Amino acid sequence: MRIGFLSDIHSNREALDACLAQAERQRVDRFVILGDLVGYGADPVYVVDKIMELQATRDAIVLLGNHDAAAISGKIENMNQYAREAILWTHDELEKQQIEFLKSLRSSYEEEDRLYVHSDATAPDQWRYITDAAGAERSLRATLKRLTFCGHVHRPQLYHMAPLKPAVAFKPQAGTPIPLVGNRKWLAVQGAVGQPRDENPAASWGVFDTDQNEFTYLRVSYDIETAAGKIHAAHLPQILAARLYIGR
Amino acid sequence: MPARQQLQTGSVLDGFTIGEKIHAGGMASLWRVTKPGIDMPIVMKVPTILDGEDATIIVGFEMEAMILPRLSGVHVPKTVAVKSIAQQPYVVMEYVQGTNLLKLLDEAPLEPEHVAQIGAKIAAALVDLHRQNVLHLDIKPSNIMLRDSGEAALIDFGLSRHMLLPDLLEEEFHVPMGTGPYISPEQVLHNRTDPRSDIFSLGVLLYHFATKVRPWGIPKFNRGLRARLWRDPVPPRKINPAIPPWLQEVILRCLEPQALNRYPTAAQLLFDLQHPDEVRLTERATRLEQSGFWTTMKRRFRSAALDTEQVQQISERPVTTAPIVLAAVDLSEGMEALAAALRREAARVLHFVPGARLACVNVLKLNRIGLNYSRDEQGRNIHVTRLVELKEWARPLGLGVGDVTFHVLESPDPGASLIEFAKSNNVDQILICARGNSNLRRYLGSTSTKVVAEAPCTVTVVRLPAAANEISEELEALEQAGTP
Questions:
Q1: Which residue from A162, A173, A184 is facing B164, i.e. has the nearest CB?
Q2: Is this prediction's ipTM beyond 0.85?
């Protein structure tokens, strides 16, 4: 089975559609959505509806992210100014139907030898960031599962950890299948679909092939002009549009 | 973990019938196996995992299981099956038929030509391996098989590194990983990212085959490994005067402690081994003594300052591709403008690529049947004349001696000989002239058309802009030839 992992879509319709189109070409059987469906971008309703559809028709697993939680509750104390503005705007945009869907989401999910979570395994509701090997190690020690898939930091990165050894970081190259071999744990941080921050503006996602035991990071170009134009039209902070062009 | 099956001759595992055990070592055992439908001889490699579960053996096996199935070509064993460590771990691969290079070591010192020939075979294998983004990092005689068909095949990828995949051995960094006599200075300093490490180890191997002596002996402790960072080896010609200066140049250049001073690529090393006359000789070629006391102490002092941080910086610098560029120079009269255009193109390519090497090639066309040339009217050998003209052509480029080589090929089929040269020398790019934008030529087939179609690399075709009247002349010629 080939599982597609989409994380941090952030209301970016154009980026989501580009990833889903590539997912068809990549023969993805099933999807796991790793949270942060909304926030920042200008198409929250479309994105949530699309993910609801994936859940209903393709048995997608959908997880809650910190922006989704904020959009439901209106709790924005821990966010920066731009994120706050976007969340307040998003909260007004969403209808009851989408809010109810977001409320139904859980913050982590386990199946077979895999853990899915938006932020990290130590405390899925605390929204900790995994930005280095130490953070990855903390998370890997908090789960018995061999493989962890998460998002939240908007930069694709792979970590692995052998028994009794520290975790080690690896910067993956898009399009190269990486065998998640052997006697060690792996943590695959997904890049962001809707707001990449690794200086590469292309939408970022990944595929895990359970038969081959291989994970592949993927990148796909999308119509940034349209996505950014909608952010301007919605009078959201300009910087949220500008950063899409440079991937930062 | 499920219980592992005890292997024995006659038992069957995943469809493989276990045959004779042909090797039992500290790291792994090897069994001959058979499976219906597989015609080539195959072996099953099983890591030796004791109760203590030695991490290095497990990780080495994981690396091999990761890398082997991703490799192809004649220079590596074909992979048949891989089973992970979580189950009964094994790799089933082709049993490479031929001679293990270790057996040849008893016959050292070998004739210099023989050493160069072996070196060329291994360099060709490294070109193929590096092209596939893999560094071997444990080049030594016992890890090299000379196939009955002639090529060198590299075996045992337990210390190897795939540049696009995570390095599972990275966390084992408290000890340098490699084999004492052969390990490169970078590996001693824990850097596993430089293809030139394999060139260093190949240099040790060639030194050993040429002299029967190991350049740094067999270091017993990690401290002994560091000597290669500061102590230059005894020049091979001092041990074996039969070694020609060019081969000493090649060997000592491979053994430079700083990777920057070695051959930038295995392809360039292979090129020199195949063209001894074109090797640029430096002080290394004629050296007969090791460096003196003070020079050595200075180097030793500096090497002590090389810390891991500095190595990390080195590894993050992109490794130069240092391509070999072939310029197919047409020296015919009337083609001067085109030859000048070709030179401008060569200058442009070389300007942007540091470390590039230019091979200037001219083909002396032989008649298919009948007498071939010997001497022209003035009695001068045409071959030599062409070489002189080639050098004259390249002079305005102002290239250093080691950056340019000259070759006159003799063949009835210029296109085929250029393609053959490009293949056997791992040329990265061919620059070739097309004699005008001629439809007639394209229809009848020209040298450049053939090279573009069949070359194993990038081909740049250089043309002079055709004047309008020339094009109409071409069209007339085409009509007269009666083609539609």
A1: A173
A2: no
